[in-house]
Design brief:
It contains two helices and seven strands. The chain is of the alpha+beta class and 127 residues long. Strands 1-2-3-7-6-5-4 form a seven-stranded antiparallel sheet, with helices on one face.
Length: 127
């Protein structure tokens, strides 16, 4: 009986200590974040949402869907991407603006579709 009580007590402490520390799925880099996505520029004041994102492949040849949130407006994010994407070899092939801003880029045999959503404070975008 004493062993069961000790086991229950240790288990309770373990579960309480694990549940009291929240897991952060949002990564807000300090400075430039090109180390992870070498061929996609990331605007300043932008955070990477690890929980929503799916990335497969090597750093220079990856595919998937990557979610970001930014303190910048959708217009500033899209302007930053339009200015910096050609520096890494991407060519803008289509741009649409409405409720969302959609930028389509091409590089070698790859395509990047960037959808920028307007939010009350800042923006969210996916690649």
């Amino acid at each position: 009986m004493y062993k069961k009580f000790i086991t229950l007590l240790i288990s309770s402490v373990f579960f309480i200590s694990c549940s009291s520390k929240p897991i952060s799925y949002i990564i807000c880099p300090d400075g430039d974040y090109l180390n992870r996505f070498q061929d996609i520029p990331v605007p300043n004041d932008t955070c990477f949402n690890l929980k929503k994102s799916t990335i497969v492949g090597s750093p220079d040849n990856w595919f998937g869907k990557v979610y970001f949130s930014s303190k910048l407006s959708a217009e500033l994010v899209s302007m930053d991407l339009r200015e910096r994407m050609p520096d890494t070899g991407w060519f803008l092939i289509n741009e649409m603006q409405g409720k969302k801003i959609l930028l389509i880029y091409e590089k070698d045999l790859r395509t990047a579709a960037i959808s920028v959503d307007r939010k009350r404070s800042g923006s969210e975008y996916t690649i």
